[in-house]
Design a protein that fits this description.
This protein is of the alpha+beta class. It has one domain: Gcn5-related N-acetyltransferase (GNAT) (Aminopeptidase), CATH 3.40.630.30. A hairpin with a 2-residue loop joins strand 7 and strand 8. The longest helix is centred in the N-terminal third of the chain and has 18 residues.
């Protein structure tokens, strides 16, 4: 069973925070072979969306109110464990993240910095590319907005 929990940074348990950092490191650093500073002191400002399957964190995002990351509200650090991607959890956690942006910040315009290879995935959630491709940590990204 897939369960989503939404928490502010101060509400996270040490085990939840550890699981978040482990999953982000597993995918963004190890799997994508990208050395970058994941711990960026923005987690404290974010609302965290955690997706658990059988009590194990397998999906995650963090959301920001306008001005905390981009001018618009935003969703970032979108991640699903590699062995869980074929089950649609990425779509589910993004839908919940979009709902959380509306619930927590009363915003419907959301900006993301999307890895280019996921463009069609984000388009399926009504995000549109709004600028040119750029490199972030040596990975092609595109700016996308959902209105």
């Amino acid at each position: 069973m897939f369960q989503i929990i939404t928490k502010k940074f101060s509400e996270l348990t040490s085990n939840e925070l550890y699981a978040i950092l482990q999953l982000r490191s597993e995918v963004f650093v190890v799997e994508q072979d990208c050395v970058y500073q994941d711990i960026d002191f923005k987690d404290q400002k974010a609302i965290h969306i955690l997706g658990f399957k059988n009590e194990k964190l397998i999906a995650y995002t963090r959301i920001f109110k306008p001005g905390d990351y981009f001018t618009q509200a935003s969703i970032g650090r979108v991640v699903v464990a590699q062995n869980q991607r074929k089950f649609g959890y990425g779509f589910i956690i993004m839908e919940q993240s979009i709902k959380a942006v509306k619930e927590y910040f009363n915003e419907t315009t959301i900006k993301i910095s999307a890895q280019k290879y996921l463009k069609k995935f984000y388009e399926s959630l009504q995000f549109e590319q709004v600028g040119e491709e750029y490199l972030e940590d040596n990975i092609p990204h595109i700016p996308m907005v959902k209105k």
